[in-house]
């Protein structure tokens, strides 16, 4: 029960890495707001939590992370339902992209930046203010990607947004240290979630082969690391990137 008594907001909590992290966090004793654009699916994850025997440990909140007021409302939801906030996992995101010279900026750049980049900034800002006002400190974990540190085909906008997540993490750790807040970014490699399902079977096989042991990562494996990073056991991991890519970047 590494997270006993902690309250967390997990964005993108309705699916993939976020859903696995919700389930891990409640098992570790946390109360969790399952924050997602897809409210119906977020409510289904809350039902899963209940079915596991953790009645009242999770609450769904509809949020579009690209709208600051909605992110603020989700943080307020955590405080209203569970009384405080200790952890935010800025994890909601979209993937995909086109070759640069085929871009329509309004379609292939702006939405990616609004969700994958601005959404993390808003989470850091809203949670940071709550941590300051509570006077308790807090932990900010944000999902970057291997593509936040290297270029790749069809990932021009995605790479930019995910690189910003790493920069935000370093700056947040720097700026919020005086309030006892720590910030960490994670860089998943190839994780078997619906976001990967949009790619062809051939491409998915290629993705798996790119990790050193030739296998995709399960979302639960990422969730295990996030739970550790959120816990006091990771108290000295701050302002940095934790690679969770099974050797992809070795
Ligand atoms: P997923 O598609 O299973 O989950 C993403 C969730 O984010 C969905 O529930 C979706 O409804 C939600 N979402 C999308 N736009 C939103 C918005 N504007 N506001 C609120 N929620 C929104 O995908 P997965 O794989 O679990 O992705 C989670 C994070 O991990 C993303 O940031 C993704 O970029 C990142 N990532 C995933 C990798 C992978 O191989 N699956 C690799 C590297 C990074």
Structure, explained:
Helix 1 runs parallel beside helix 2, helix 1 crosses helix 9 (219-230) and helix 3 (68-82) runs parallel beside helix 5. This protein is α/β, with parallel strands linked by helices. The chain has a single domain (7-241), classed as NAD(P)-binding Rossmann-like Domain (Rossmann fold, 3-Layer(aba) Sandwich). It is built from nine helices and seven strands, in the order βαβαβαβααβαβαααβ. Helix 1 (16-27) links the parallel strand 1 and strand 2. The chain has a seven-stranded parallel β-sheet, sandwiched between helices. The chain starts with 6 loop residues before the first strand and ends in a 6-residue tail after the last strand. The structure holds 1,4-dihydronicotinamide adenine dinucleotide. Residues 11-12, 14-18, 36-38, 63-66, 91-95, 115, 143, 145, 188, 190-191, 193-196 line the site of 1,4-dihydronicotinamide adenine dinucleotide.
